[in-house]
Amino acid sequence: MKMFRSRSWFGGGWGRPKNPHSLEHLKYLYNVLSRNQTVSEHNRELLVETLRSIAEILIWGDQNDSSVFDFFLEKNMLSFFLRIMRQRSGGSNYVCVQLLQTLNILFENIRNETSLYYLLSNNHVNSIIVHKFDFSNEEVMAYYISFLKTLSLKLNAHTIHFFYNEHTNDFPLYTEAIKFFNHPETMVRIAVRTLTLNVYKVDDASMLAFIRDRTAAPYFSNIAWFIGKHIQELDMCVRNEADHHSQNRLADLVAEHLDHLHYINDILCLNITDLNHVLTDHLLHKLLIPLYIYSLASHRRKSSLPEGVNQAVAKILSKTLSRPDSPRLQDPLSGRVSCVVALFLLSQVFLILSHSPLVQSLAWIILKTDSTVLDKGVNKLLEHYESEKKLLEDSMNNEASAVNFTSKEALLEDLRNITDEEKEKLAKNPSENVAMHKPFLETVYSALDCSENDYGALFALCLLYAMANNKGITSDVIEQVLKPKKSFMSKCSSKDIKYSYNVYLVEKLLLIISLACQPTCRIRLVTLEISLKLLLHLVICDGKNILLEPHRAVIETAKSQSMTLLRNFYKSEEIFLDMFEHDFRYCDMSKSSLNVEWLCMDSAILLPPAGTPLTGIDFIKRLPCGESEKARRAIRLYFLMRNTVLTLSGEMETQLPLTNPQSCVQIEQALDLSISHNSDLIACTVLYKDGMKMRRFLVIDVLQLILVEPDNKRLGWGVAKLVGFLQDIEVTGDKDDSRCLHITIHRPISGATTNRVPLLSAKFLFDDNIRCMAAKQRLTKGRLKARQKKMQHIARLLEIPGQSGPPSPAFTGQGLYTCRATGRNLRENRQLFTASRAPGFAAPKRESSPGVLHRADESRRHRDGDSPHRLSNLRKELNPSPSSNNVKKETRSREASSSRTKSREGSPKMPRPRSEEIPLELIKKASHSIIDMAPKINILPRPQSAKTESEPCASGLINDNAQSKESGVLKETTTISEETSFIGDRQSDKKSEEREAV
Q1: Long-range pairs for 6-13: beta carbons < 8 A, 24 or more residues apart
Q2: Edge-to-edge strand order for the sheet containing 681-687?
Q3: Which of 2, 115, 672, 725 has the fewest CB atoms in 10 Å of its CB?
Q4: pLDDT-based confidence at 397, cuts 50/70/90?
């Protein structure tokens, strides 16, 4: 009996077509549905499988066989779906889930419009939409809302009539969906917003009229109510989460508010005039003004409730706060939130919304509302704004009246920028002139006070910045407050232009900047950065810096203070250099623009400023912890102030970064190795950790370590296969093998992460222990020299006493390889005679001779050393008079030329080393110019003692060490800069090593 039942019609044995994608199979499934119209525990599995198969064969038929849909419509199979849904027997929810899933898949995958029209006919789809499903079942709810969203994606000017019945004035797809706008599940809320936007996009006048007349007012009113209730929860969370315990809850609330604002902005951007008017009216009267803006009022009677706010709504929105002693608490019936939360939410409003009628009215109310209108309520406030707007429009149309129509605020600003009396009055009591009788603007200005911390100042700055950069706000609203004002002195000529700006606000910003440069301040970097950006927005007009001289002096003083603060952290430790370069890369990547919108998405800034990294808050959004983070803050502070000063002066950055990547050797770059000595190329075998071996040549430059592979096409050339900076290497010897070195090359620290990921970590095997020792010595010395040069460059940037001279090769990119190549090209192209000189004339001297001058200098130094006026004598020698200089130069020239002639007669004729040749045109350069060439190589290299800072670099005096007392062989001396002397020392060491080897 079991075997017979399994092979019965219901079990799917006999009569089932072998091809599942065929009309016969659909007929078979139709018979199954017709025989199982009543759902029970026994046949629900069969029904689920049948519904799934029907969706599969219909999708196949849509693309391959139209007869499938013909049979589906002929038998009216959607009626079976309705019959199954309406049953309340056991297992109905289980079958309804599969039914909704089948419909969702079916409508999502149909491509043929004719098939879609067939499915939407007979009004069965609308009957399914209005069916009362058991929405307590999460699966039923999920598939139902997904089904509605899928249907909304099929809406257009043709299909809208299948869903909206103009005769009955019914639109179930829309009206049923908006009931779930405030559903607890995020996925459901997102699906409803998507559906409504898809409906609004359909260009059908009757449908839009139905939405405007029947659903817009209650729906948009509910949106305002839900957002207000949500804001109250957010405000309570901010008040109760001062210890950063529930950041996730606060983050969810902020994200939800952002979703609401983006949804509203999407509706407004559709530019549907009727809908935008209704939505703007509800937002202004029931949400933005009574809850957002009125929370900024610092003084307000508790009994005054703004007009237009429903009493029941206000009771629901406002809750009794847990801390009744808070100074910012007001009457709960007023529906207000804390000032900090209000500033934060308004910043998000102006950063996201750009609908001009909405944001312009909000900006005008915040900046220009008088205290006499404040207590009259929302309706009177908006009426006052409309009247002022109409008056302004009439005055703009009439040019004659435009000259006479000036506000009191603009007149005060003009006079303040013209007369000293007004400036003195402003200095005594500026708030009375700028924000007098403007309660909302006064609250924003008061929040800029950073005497204790920058908690409220950050949100006030964000609000001002958002209003100043909102494209929907016209210039007449924010001019002279958040935008420079340009006025013409003469009507007939546009040449005489007078610029003015909000002096009071600029002084507030300068105070924040000055406080941020103090050692013990509690101002975060993000507050300083947005203050600087807002300052630049206020004082740069038409590409010109209109900042007044007193204010410029404040900026310069703040930059000097930031430099002084950073000097306290300047140390010789390696970590300072790494931090300096890392923070410059971070600031360089983010200096283009501070994304304030992203900043206001972070819920962490709503909590009081934290001073520990354990909270997980970004470094720039919290206070520093420990000496290391204080040093990082000082570095970034210096970069921000330096960039601001350069921007105000219209200059370009010429000293940073410390390393110019464009002048460094890059991977796969062809190098002419013939310009380098053989000692610079050290053959080695690189042994990687994975067992791979590669034969390479090691080239040690001033800044870089280069692994070179010989070029097969050109003799003497090589290709760079790996490049790393010497300052980022670690070298250790191998205890078991004296020919091996363990070398690790770290990547430069990027702005995104501080993890030092090794660029290369391998064992280097050299031919013998001598080459291994030489490579280790040069790598160690090169690393030390590279870091020293960069530290010296930083010292010059910070104007540390004792550091002077031109930029180091680390900045200019003049590595050893570059210098040699440039020097060789200059020598090969040098002219034998110049146009201004003939053979026999005196030429600049490059070598010292054991003449009278040398001995005279030596005796003079001994004499001055015993004199009590040694320092004054030294100054006279460094700054001689012009007449004495001429006499001395002529004497030296004659004596040196005579001694040089004698030495030439008795000296053997030996080929002159090409490395000693220095082009005359480079010698003629000014002493402050940077010579881009390799220094000369001394004939007899000896270790040179380091020069002291008091020793002149280009004074023309001959060094006492120019003649070696032990060997008696002359050494050639020239004026060498601090950077090129470093290269000369390295080359001298290489020459001495070659001679010792011989």
Answers
A1: 9/35, 10/35, 10/36, 10/43, 10/46, 12/46
A2: 670-672, 717-725, 704-710, 693-700, 681-687, 758-766, 740-746, 729-733
A3: 2
A4: low
- The angle formed by the CA atoms of residues 949, 955 and 958, to the nearest 5 degrees, is 90
CA distance linking residue 775 with residue 773, whole number of Å: 5
Task: Number of helices (H) and strands (E) in the chain: give both, helices first.
Answer: 42, 12
DSSP state of 52: H
Could you identify the residue written with the tokens 């707007």? 389
Which of 683, 600, 560, 733 lies closest to 254 in space, CA to CA? 600
Q: CA torsion sign, 249 to 254 to 259 to 260?
A: positive
Residue 884 pLDDT exceeds 70: no
* Alpha-helical runs (H) found in 241-310: 247-269, 273-283
> Nearest to residue 923, comparing CAs of 911, 912, 936, 910?
936
Residue 749 per-residue DSSP state: P
789 token code pair: 């040069």
Q: What are phi and psi of 704, to 5 degrees?
A: -125, 155
Dist. CA 628–CA 773, nearest whole Å: 36
User: Measured at the alpha carbon of residue 871, what is the angle toward residues 866 and 875, in degrees to the nearest 5?
Assistant: 130
More confident residue, 13 or 554: 554
CA 426 vs CA 81, 417, 421: distances in Å: 78, 10, 9
| Residues 554 and 510 sit within 8 Å (Cβ to Cβ) | yes
Residue 951: the pLDDT is 40
pLDDT of residue 803: 63
Whether the CA torsion 976, 803, 784, 726 is positive or negative: it is negative
Q: Is 290 exposed, middle or buried (0-12, 13-18, 19+ CB in 10 A)?
A: buried
Q: Kindly report the three-state secondary structure assignment for every residue of 650-686.
A: CCCCCCCCCCCHHHCCCCCCEEEHHHCCHHHEEEEEE
pLDDT band at 577 (very low <50, low <70, confident <90, very high): confident
Q: Which pLDDT band, with edges at 50, 70 and 90, does 678 fall under?
A: very low
DSSP 946: P
Q: How confident is the model at residue 924 (pLDDT cuts 50, 70, 90)?
A: very low
The contacts of residue 692 (CB under 8 Å, 6+ apart) are none
pLDDT tens readout for residues 89-120: 655 678 888 889 889 988 988 888 888 888 88
885, two tokens? 């200089």
Taking a C-beta distance cutoff of 8 angstroms, is the pair 556, 645 a contact? yes
User: 179 is written with which tokens?
Assistant: 């009931």
The neighbour count for residue 138, using CB atoms within 10 Å, is 9
Structural tokens at position 928 = 């402050």
pLDDT for res 691: 87
Contact 230, 260 (CB under 8 A): yes
Over residues 461-479, the mean pLDDT reads: 91
- pLDDT score of 229: 92
Higher pLDDT pick, 545 / 571: 545
Tens of pLDDT, residue by residue over 21-79, are 888 888 888 888 888 888 887 888 888 888 889 888 988 888 888 888 888 888 888 88
Question: Which of 168-172, 335-339, 804-808 is predicted with the least confidence, judged by mean pLDDT?
Answer: 804-808
Task: Give the pLDDT of residue 299.
Answer: 44
**What's residue 370's pLDDT?**
85
**The pair of three-digit structure tokens given for residue 378, joined into one six-digit string:** 């929302």
Global pTM value:
0.72
> Is-contact 107 150, C-beta < 8 A?
yes
Please give the pLDDT value at position 573.
Answer: 62
**Separation of first and last alpha carbons in the chain:** 107
Q: How far apart are CA 108 and CA 101, in angstroms?
A: 10
The amino acid occupying position 217 is A
Answer whether 772's CB lies under 8 Å from 766's CB: yes
Select from 812, 758, 818 the least CA-distant residue to 790: 812
Please give the torsion angle defined by the CA atoms of residues 219, 222, 223 and 228, in that order, rounded to the nearest 10 degrees. Answer: 170
| Inter-residue contact 603 to 256 (CB < 8 Å) | no
